[in-house]
Write a structure and sequence with these properties.
304 residues, Sortase, Chain: A, alpha+beta
């Protein structure tokens, strides 16, 4: 064993010591080790300066490498612990955020569930007609009435609020619209006749006194949950078309193009500009004859 260790020290000294070690001294030492091994007796060699130097270098190298190894292990252990702590912090933070979001959603859902329109008694209206979805009021006209929604857009053309056959029909929302959470474009229809029924007086919006009175241009729509306020941004007449009867839009660009078209068609600049972030209300009725339409459009500006 001593022979092997000494050989290793010698090789290290030759390799890293620049070959300056006395080879004869080592050869004598190896012969000495071999002789004593054969006799099973080791006689301490005479002190050798080169051997002392090699042993010292080897010991220092062991200490340095050992210290580096210990430091590396400690640093790695600390990195692992830091990583574990950071992961746990992020996980805890994420879980806490998820809980807060969940609680917020539940709270909002409960508030919406508990929310009731204090301006209209929808319970009574629904007892009379379960299709009731809203109440519409347009200042400057006689439109102040409940709105229904059927399974299609033809039933209430010939049936009144009590679902009785009636040529006057009733004011109704497009069957594809949603309530009380409104669609992007809530569309409502009603017949126009010479008498003051349904949407007959909607044509008052074409008169100068209505167009010049900004207070009349605020439409109120009550749903079961709340009262919504809309501000008129477009009024126009047009030959029968369906291009304005779009409830939802595939993209913001398409919605913006729709809004731009409505603004361009308006007979007056109401200084009210809807954006793609606004929900709007569209009222549609016949004008003069069944081949023309009167359209009133307003954007949602608030709720009560």
């Amino acid at each position: 064993m001593i022979y092997i260790l000494t050989k290793i020290l010698y090789n290290c000294a030759i390799r890293y010591g620049g070959g300056s070690i006395n080879n004869n001294s080592f050869n004598d030492f190896f012969e000495y080790i071999n002789d004593n091994n054969e006799q099973n007796t080791i006689i301490p060699p005479k002190p050798n300066k080169n051997l002392n130097m090699i042993a010292t270098m080897f010991a220092i190298a062991l200490l340095l490498s050992g210290g580096y190894g210990v430091k590396y292990i400690l640093d790695q252990k600390q990195d692992i612990e830091d990583s574990r702590i950071r992961q746990q912090e992020l996980l805890t933070s994420s879980q806490q955020k998820a809980r807060e979001i969940t609680e917020s959603i539940k709270k909002e859902e409960q508030q919406n569930k508990d929310k009731t329109n204090i301006h209209r008694n929808f319970s009574e209206l629904k007892e009379r007609n379960g299709d009731t979805v809203a109440w519409l009021y347009v200042p400057g006209t006689d439109i102040d009435m409940p709105i229904v929604k059927g399974v299609n857009n033809s039933y209430y053309l010939t049936h009144d609020f009590d679902k009785k056959s009636n040529a006057m029909g009733w004011a109704f929302a497009d069957s594809q619209n949603t309530f009380p959470t409104l669609s992007t474009n809530t569309i409502m229809y009603g017949h126009t006749y010479k008498m003051t029924t349904i949407f007959s007086k909607l044509k008052n919006v074409l008169e100068k006194k209505w167009l010049d009175n900004e207070n009349m241009q605020r439409i109120t729509l009550d749903t079961e949950k709340e009262r919504l306020i809309f501000k008129v941004f477009s009024v126009y007449t047009i030959k029968e078309t369906t291009d304005y009867l779009q409830i939802s839009f595939n993209s913001k660009d398409k919605y913006q193009n729709y809004l731009n078209t409505s603004l361009e068609r308006s007979i007056k600049d109401f200084k009210t500009i809807p954006t793609v972030n606004n929900k709007i209300l569209t009222l549609s009725t016949c004008y003069q004859d069944s081949n023309q339409r009167l359209i009133v459009q307003a954007k949602l500006i608030g709720s009560e």
